[in-house]
Amino acid sequence: MDGYALALKSEQINKPGGLNFKITDRITAGSLGKVLKPGCAARIFTGAAIPKGANCVIMQEFCELAKDENSIETWQPLLLNENIRPCGNDITKNDVILQTGRRLNPADIALAASVGVAKLSIFKQIKVGVFFSGDELIEPGSALTGSKIFNSNRYALVALLNQLGCEVVNLGNIKDDFSATNQALSALSATCDLIITTGGVSVGEEDYVKKALEKLGDLAFWRIKMKPGKPLAFGKIGQAIFIGLPGNPVSVMVTFFLFAQPMIKKMQGIENYKNQKTQVQCGFEWKKQRNRREFVRVKLELGTQPPSAILYPKQDSNVLSSMVWADGLVEIPENISFEKGKILNYYSLMKL
Hints:
This protein has 352 residues and is of the alpha/beta class. Helices cover 18% and strands 28% of the residues. It folds into three domains: 3-74, Molybdopterin biosynthesis moea protein, domain 3 (Molybdopterin biosynthesis moeA protein, domain 3), CATH 2.170.190; 127-267, 3-Layer(aba) Sandwich (Molybdenum Cofactor Biosythetic Enzyme, Chain A); 277-348, MoeA, C-terminal, domain IV (Beta-clip, Beta Barrel), CATH 2.40.340.10.
């Protein structure tokens, strides 16, 4: 505090009434004062080191400077160590201040700087190559003609990757052509840690991504028993990991969240890379049993305990507006039906 460092005598501690202290020093921030003798004071400013012998600091508002400016008087009861921050109050020797696997934020960087650390060892930025298959795709801003559709997947995927701190190599739209798909995968596999595509991994004659992956690399698995996102492909081309996301926009975002995001976080060295789940009660009923797991878009109502999840009325994988409305996903296991109030797992889409 701006005020006076005091060397209190035992009889001066917490004593009511007037006390006088002779001023023997002036200490500014960044400077060291002289040893303070009992019963004496040193003018001190916020951030300055406490001189040896001092055991209290009084704020300047609670004392009166004598006319000759050589002493102060106060009627404030004084306590030991008042307004003094001791060494090691925050961090002591051999403390671990930042654990490996932590994603650095501004407070982390400030804390490292506060103890004099000039450099931090970090995991390298993940380079992710992307492209988008589909001759029907055109860019937003173009004239919409015939059976063309705007490519929302491109902007969703790049935004999701940027949000995770990835370096993105974006090849844009690739023709529905086996040769063009091969060329795109070959080019990205030479420089990227991870390749993510949308579309071209289903069973259609014009779905070339899966076929090109099987030619150039290894297909570890294809298709998963869930909705949305059944036609998901995973494999490897050279040293690059490959994830082929479905083509429907909701399926892209849901499968990215469930599969790609945790894997990217693990590649980045993040310790808590898994999506975190909580328990909510369903504010909707589920009548028809299905033979695959479903992740439905919901919004939480926080007025109940546990919170209640409200279901978006349209759960089709092309209803992209549901992803704007929803704040999370409820996981519905296979082959169950239930009434309102069922407790199930909830995954928030609001946090990385």
